[in-house]
Amino acid sequence: MNFFLLLILLLSLGFYIIAPNIPYIASNFSSQSPLPLDDLSGNYNYLEQLGEWEGSRITTFPYRSRMDLATRNVLSLVSFSNKRIEIDLTHQKLYAFEGENKVFEFPISSGLYNWTPTGEFWVWIKLRYTLMTGGNKALHTYYYLPNVPFTMYFENDNVSRTKGYGIHGAYWHNDFGRPKSHGCVNLRPEDAEKLYYWTEPNLNGKNSIRTTEDNPGTRIIIYGQYQG
């Protein structure tokens, strides 16, 4: 066989083997960005109407709600002790329970460019809107996303709050059901809104709320591994 044809064949075979794993290789260089602690107000930023995702300019999430106040209040009625969230990374699903009763089931997008951590966590802060930025421009994974809606950041003893892992709405893609994020759990904005008002801590009419001893966060259990 011609040497150059053999070389092309070997290079093609190597790329075929490596290509499906490129996002996971990139995860070593495109980790979840630390949580910016300078603004945790949860307020909408009217001055930032454009964002960037994977090299494309996008319009940010509009300032509006699809729920009336009465619906939000009903969602928050069940006591903290009966609520939990389960996130199945294998099947890219989020389930919300009140006791043994499943009240929500949503498709998600978990970490593609960085792993979503597994284990047992607790919501520690909720933000109606927040800025998220990170990634790597050289790898075309850079993102700058103002006004990310309905964010529920979580933590445990091994994953600190400064790591910036959370559940939130994603307005920059519509590819739910498979990994897409930098480590967070993406939901459709309309699904994130329901979960945001359902979870603890109770917002008490605010755009931002941290957990306290009297107003603790909802438990989150994350398990599995995507096999696609």
UniProtKB/TrEMBL annotation:
<dbReference type="GO" id="GO:0005576">
    <property type="term" value="C:extracellular region"/>
</dbReference>
<dbReference type="GO" id="GO:0018104">
    <property type="term" value="P:peptidoglycan-protein cross-linking"/>
</dbReference>
<dbReference type="GO" id="GO:0071972">
    <property type="term" value="F:peptidoglycan L,D-transpeptidase activity"/>
</dbReference>
<dbReference type="GO" id="GO:0016740">
    <property type="term" value="F:transferase activity"/>
</dbReference>
<feature type="active site" description="Nucleophile">
    <location>
        <position position="184"/>
    </location>
</feature>
<keyword id="KW-0808">Transferase</keyword>
<dbReference type="InterPro" id="IPR038063">
    <property type="entry name" value="Transpep_catalytic_dom"/>
</dbReference>
<protein>
    <recommendedName>
        <fullName>L,D-TPase catalytic domain-containing protein</fullName>
    </recommendedName>
</protein>
<feature type="domain" description="L,D-TPase catalytic">
    <location>
        <begin position="83"/>
        <end position="223"/>
    </location>
</feature>
<dbReference type="InterPro" id="IPR005490">
    <property type="entry name" value="LD_TPept_cat_dom"/>
</dbReference>
<dbReference type="GO" id="GO:0071555">
    <property type="term" value="P:cell wall organization"/>
</dbReference>
<feature type="active site" description="Proton donor/acceptor">
    <location>
        <position position="168"/>
    </location>
</feature>
<keyword id="KW-0573">Peptidoglycan synthesis</keyword>
<dbReference type="GO" id="GO:0008360">
    <property type="term" value="P:regulation of cell shape"/>
</dbReference>
<dbReference type="Pfam" id="PF03734">
    <property type="entry name" value="YkuD"/>
</dbReference>
<keyword id="KW-0133">Cell shape</keyword>
<comment type="pathway">
    <text>Cell wall biogenesis; peptidoglycan biosynthesis.</text>
</comment>
<keyword id="KW-0961">Cell wall biogenesis/degradation</keyword>
<dbReference type="InterPro" id="IPR050979">
    <property type="entry name" value="LD-transpeptidase"/>
</dbReference>
